[in-house]
């Protein structure tokens, strides 16, 4: 197609061309001959380049396919939450490695009972977490929320329940330095209670059992705040039939702090006395001394006490020391009790006098007599002085 145009104006970079119907077209002046000036007529031929169009369309389609294969076929994987171990107060949760595809990770959070429990640190490396401080025999629900640049993905909801006190299957023990025989007995006890053994300290290790505090596993257990106990702790759990405290079973703990009991659901083995119920020790009594029946304290025959309230404890005369008294016959018990009552009636007024107003005059009269005696003798001080002077005179005479 050939088009004739008239040059209207030529600038440094753009030339203005006019069509026959007086329309303006801006055309690059660098494409025009250098001799063109205003008013010149130029012929421009225009045609379609089909080969170039096909190449351009093919390049565009290849780009679209590359974008689809890179960003459209692979998407981030939804996390799958699982239970690894459960105890009375803790839970260990785990999941598979996070698949982000071509997206960028924003955060990975754990939710407990519908509320956010916290973000998972280093989510591309961390594949498990431990929840501690939970209630005993209580049900909880957990799920993960993965946030990426390509969207938000929520994992499955995991409903788990902590163990009761008598459920020992959640105990996971890592043995440390132990004698060979003690290690064998420990493995047998762990097998009997349904617990597990880990060769190395892991996130689901609940207790580290050893008799010597040294070694790499012992150091790692201290770093992870895992209780380090003696093998007697496992035996105590088996004996009690429930999980017991570890305070008395630490390596440096006093054995007297251990509360040893027995499992009521298991029969006590032969030769081992049951420690659940111990008979109370008998009350200390005087040897071979018959018990006297309690009688009311005798009152004075000539006056009654006017003091209100209960009388004080009865003071009995001290019996003479006797050894190996013959047993009291059953038939003569009544006669001896009567003789003892008679002795109490005779000695009662002299041994214990009830406090009351009736004895006040006698006490005053005794005090007056004592004062008169002191006046006649010149008082206790004068007597002592006189005696002292007499002693001095005797010394001089000698």
Protein traits:
398 residues, five-stranded antiparallel sheet, disordered C terminus, four-stranded antiparallel sheet, Immunoglobulin-like, alpha+beta, rod-shaped, single chain
Describe the structure.
The protein has 398 residues and is an alpha+beta fold. Among the domains are: 2-45, no CATH class; 81-161, Immunoglobulins (Immunoglobulin-like), CATH 2.60.40; 172-257, Rossmann fold (3-Layer(aba) Sandwich). It is 27% helix and 20% strand. Strands 7, 8, 10, 11 and 12 form a five-stranded antiparallel β-sheet that branches. The chain has a four-stranded antiparallel β-sheet with strand order 3-2-1-4, with no helix packed on it. Strands 14-13-15-16 form a four-stranded parallel β-sheet. Helix 2 packs parallel to helix 4 (232-240). The protein starts with a strand and ends with a helix. Residues 255-398 are annotated as: Disordered. InterPro entries: BRCT_dom, BRCT_dom_sf, Chs5_N, CHS_Export/Cell_Fusion_Reg, Fn3_2, FN3_sf, Ig-like_fold. Residues 163-251 form the BRCT domain.
């Amino acid at each position: 197609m050939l088009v004739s145009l008239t040059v209207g104006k030529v600038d440094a970079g753009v030339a203005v061309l006019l069509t026959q119907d007086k329309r303006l077209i801006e055309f690059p002046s660098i494409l025009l001959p250098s001799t063109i000036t205003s008013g010149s007529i130029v012929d421009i031929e225009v045609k379609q380049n089909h080969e170039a169009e096909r190449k351009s369309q093919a390049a565009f389609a290849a780009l679209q396919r590359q974008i689809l294969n890179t960003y459209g076929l692979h998407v981030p994987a939804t996390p799958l939450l699982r239970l690894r171990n459960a105890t009375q107060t803790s839970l260990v949760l785990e999941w598979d490695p996070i698949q982000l595809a071509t997206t960028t990770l924003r955060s990975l959070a754990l939710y407990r009972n519908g509320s956010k429990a916290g973000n998972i640190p280093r989510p591309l490396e961390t594949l498990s977490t431990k929840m501690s401080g939970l209630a005993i025999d209580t049900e909880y629900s957990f799920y993960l929320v993965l946030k990426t640049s390509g969207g938000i993905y929520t994992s499955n909801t995991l409903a788990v329940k902590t163990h009761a006190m008598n459920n020992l299957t959640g105990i996971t023990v890592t043995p440390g330095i132990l004698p060979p025989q003690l290690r064998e007995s420990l493995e047998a006890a762990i097998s009997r209670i349904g617990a597990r053994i880990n060769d190395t300290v892991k996130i689901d290790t609940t207790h580290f059992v050893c008799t010597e505090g040294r070694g790499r596993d012992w150091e790692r257990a201290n770093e992870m705040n895992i209780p380090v106990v003696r093998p007697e702790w496992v035996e105590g759990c088996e004996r009690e039939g429930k999980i017991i405290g570890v305070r008395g079973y630490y390596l440096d703990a006093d054995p007297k702090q251990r509360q040893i009991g027995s499992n009521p659901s298991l029969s006590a083995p032969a030769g081992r006395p049951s420690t659940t119920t111990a008979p109370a020790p008998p009350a200390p009594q005087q040897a071979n001394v018959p018990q006297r029946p309690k009688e009311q304290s005798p009152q004075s025959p000539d006056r009654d006490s006017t003091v209100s309230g209960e009388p004080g404890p009865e003071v009995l005369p001290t019996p003479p020391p006797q050894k190996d008294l013959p047993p009291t016959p059953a038939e003569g018990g009544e006669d001896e009790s009567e003789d003892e009552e008679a002795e109490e009636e005779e000695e009662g007024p002299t041994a214990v006098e009830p406090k009351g107003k009736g004895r006040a005059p006698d006490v005053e009269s005794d005090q007056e007599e004592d004062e008169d005696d002191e006046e006649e003798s010149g008082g206790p001080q004068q007597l002592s002085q006189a005696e002292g002077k007499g002693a001095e005179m005797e010394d001089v005479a000698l």
